[in-house]
C-alpha cells in the first residue's frame, strides 16, 4: 500500500487535495469540486494496484453535506462523534446507571450486545475524539460502579 499511497499523494498534491487513509478507508478532501479527470486518475491508480473499489461506499460530498469518516463527524470543521451516536451511547449509559448491567441486559433481551469491554471501548473512542466532553467523566463513574458491582 505504501507505493500506492505515494501515487495517491502525488495526485493529491497535483490537484491541491488532502489525502488521508485509515486502513482501507481513503479520503480525499478539497475546497473545490472534484472533476471527472481527478476521479479517473484516483480510480486508475487503485485499479493498477489491484484494489477493488466498493461503489456502495464511495461518496462525493459537497460543502453542505454531512461528512462522517470512520465514525467521526468532521462537518463542523473539528472532529466530533455524530449526534445520533452520542444520543444512543448516552441512553445506554443512562439505562446502565438506572438498572445496572445485569438488569439492563435482561431489559434489552440482548445478552451479547453489551459488555464492560465494549462500553470501555466506546468511552475511550469518544474521549479520543472529544477529550473535553463533560458527559464522558460521568459515564466513566457509572462504568466503574458497574465494574465494582460485578466484582462483588
* Straight-line distance between termini: 49 Å
Strand residue percentage: 5-15%
Question: How large, in whole angstroms, is the Cα Rg?
Answer: 21 Å
Q: Pick out the low-confidence regions.
A: none
Tally of alpha and pi helices: 6
What topology, given as strand order, has the largest sheet? 1-2
The total beta strand count reads 4
Largest sheet: 2 strands, antiparallel
H-E string: HEEHEEHHHH
Q: Averaging pLDDT over every residue, what do you get?
A: 85
Shape: elongated
Fraction in helix: 40-55%
Helix/strand-derived category reads mainly alpha
Any chance you could write out the topology, listing elements then pairs?
Blueprint: H1 2-14, E1 18-22, E2 25-29, H2 36-48, E3 68-69, E4 72-73, H3 83-99, H4 101-108, H5 116-129, H6 134-151
Antiparallel strand pairs: 1-2, 3-4
Helix pairs in contact: 1-2, 3-4, 3-6, 5-6
Structure description:
Helix content is 55%, strand content 9%. It is mostly helical and 152 residues long. A two-stranded antiparallel sheet has the order 1-2. The protein has a two-stranded antiparallel sheet with strand order 3-4.
Concise synopsis of the structure shown:
With 152 residues, the protein is mainly alpha-helical. Helices cover 55% and strands 9% of the residues.
Key structural traits:
single chain, 152 residues, mainly alpha, two-stranded antiparallel ribbon, two-stranded antiparallel sheet, 55% helix, 9% strand
Amino acid at each position: 500500500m505504501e507505493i500506492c499511497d505515494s501515487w495517491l499523494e502525488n495526485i493529491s498534491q497535483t490537484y491541491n487535495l488532502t489525502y488521508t487513509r485509515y486502513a482501507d478507508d481513503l479520503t480525499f478532501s478539497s475546497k473545490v469540486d472534484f472533476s471527472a479527470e481527478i476521479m479517473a486518475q484516483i480510480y486508475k491508480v487503485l485499479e493498477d494496484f489491484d484494489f477493488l473499489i466498493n461503489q456502495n461506499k464511495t461518496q462525493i460530498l459537497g460543502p453542505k453535506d454531512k461528512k462522517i469518516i470512520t465514525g467521526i463527524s468532521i462537518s463542523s470543521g473539528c472532529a466530533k462523534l455524530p449526534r445520533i451516536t452520542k444520543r444512543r451511547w448516552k441512553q445506554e449509559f443512562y439505562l446502565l446507571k438506572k438498572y445496572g448491567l445485569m438488569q439492563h441486559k435482561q431489559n434489552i433481551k440482548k445478552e451479547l450486545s453489551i459488555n464492560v469491554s465494549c462500553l470501555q471501548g466506546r468511552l475511550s473512542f469518544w474521549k479520543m475524539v472529544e477529550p473535553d466532553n463533560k458527559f464522558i467523566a460521568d459515564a466513566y463513574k457509572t462504568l466503574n460502579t458497574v465494574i465494582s458491582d460485578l466484582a462483588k
